Amino acid sequence: MKVVLGFSGGVDSAVCAALLKKEGHEVIGLYLDNADEQAKAEAIGAAAHIGIPLHIADVKAELEEKVCRPFQEAYFRGETPNPCILCNPTVKFRNLLALADALGAEKIATGHYARAEEDGIYKGHPSNDQSYMLCRLTRAQAARLLFPIGGMEKTAVRALAAELGLPVANKPDSMEICFIPDKDYLGWLSRRRELPGPGDFCFHGQVIGQHEGICRYTVGQRRPGLHGDRKVYISRIDARENRIDLALWEELFQTEVKARDFNWLIEPPTEPFRGTVRVRHTKWENPPCTVYPEGDGVRILCDEPVRAPAAGQSAVVYSGDRLLGGGFIV
């Protein structure tokens, strides 16, 4: 079978290529070029070592339109966006499918830690599950997926890379946002637009200090110092009023979460149903809930309160291990 593999040249995609080849598939790599010349050279070298052809797609313009600009706009609205969730359906998997269709490939593959089974997406190994990041894929994209290392632990993948003699076995993981390689997102934002200035910190309706600009904060973050004898945390960012509301730890927890623009990976339900929900990319917070479809979004009532659901992050719903979809928290 012919498979188009998202290939970055890192340990995950290299092991995927080796495993797919070992299974007898014809593997074609696709590198998404975002102007990082060193990373591109490393990907070309890794593909040559493994023995797969590598296509290179210039995605700078797509990334700007579909990911960078929405990421910027969300921060200036006082939200906390997740760029990978924006990128996966609109740039990464769209380009993989486009190349697969052009080459007559039946399947596409990536090194995500999730499982693709029966046209659905399921959680990967609990220690490194990445299914949350895939919540906005289309059903057409999900139906053609392979995740060769999806059920494995990262340590096992590195051990396998060493066993296979891959030179990237000890290559460090990439932890930064790909278009902000120095991790300085404030510097990146400031080069694109003037950052908002100082404003009020408010606690229970009273101004208790000045913040340094809303883009420097996110819901759930602790404000340095104490108010009285208590720690206080960011509970809401009001971009229009340039105000940040503070709360005590126990006041951050909510049982109701609303999400807009919900993307379903199943036939969209019309009636409430039981499931579980994640409100951020964590491995431990996944409480049972009841999901109420409402228009293009959902209202979620959690059996146990979730901590500080942040506007702009995704509320992602599961049935058991199966990923059902996700929408943007409001």
Describe this structure in words.
With 330 residues, the protein is α/β, with parallel strands linked by helices. It is built from seven helices and 18 strands. The protein has helices at 11-22, 37-50, 60-76, 83-103, 139-142, 154-163, 185-192; strands at residues 2-6, 26-33, 54-58, 107-109, 114-117, 120-123, 145-146, 199-203, 206-211, 222-227, 230-238, 243-247, 253-264, 273-278, 288-294, 297-307, 314-319, 322-329. The protein has a six-stranded antiparallel beta barrel with strand order 13-16-15-14-17-18. Strands 3-2-1-4-7 form a five-stranded parallel sheet, with helices on both faces. Helix 1 packs across helix 6 and helix 3 runs antiparallel to helix 4. The longest helix has 21 residues, at 83-103. The model has no long low-confidence stretch (mean pLDDT 94).
Q: Report the strand count.
A: 18
Helices and strands, in order, run as EHEHEHHEEEHEHHEEEEEEEEEEE
Q: What would you call the structural class?
A: alpha/beta
Q: Oligomeric state of the chains?
A: single chain
Question: How does the overall form come out from the CA principal axes?
Answer: globular
Could you give a short account of the major beta sheet? 6 strands, antiparallel, barrel
Number of helices: 7
Computed over alpha carbons, the radius of gyration is: 21 Å
Percent of residues in β-strands? 25-35%
Distance between the termini: 43 Å
Strand arrangement, major sheet: 13-16-15-14-17-18
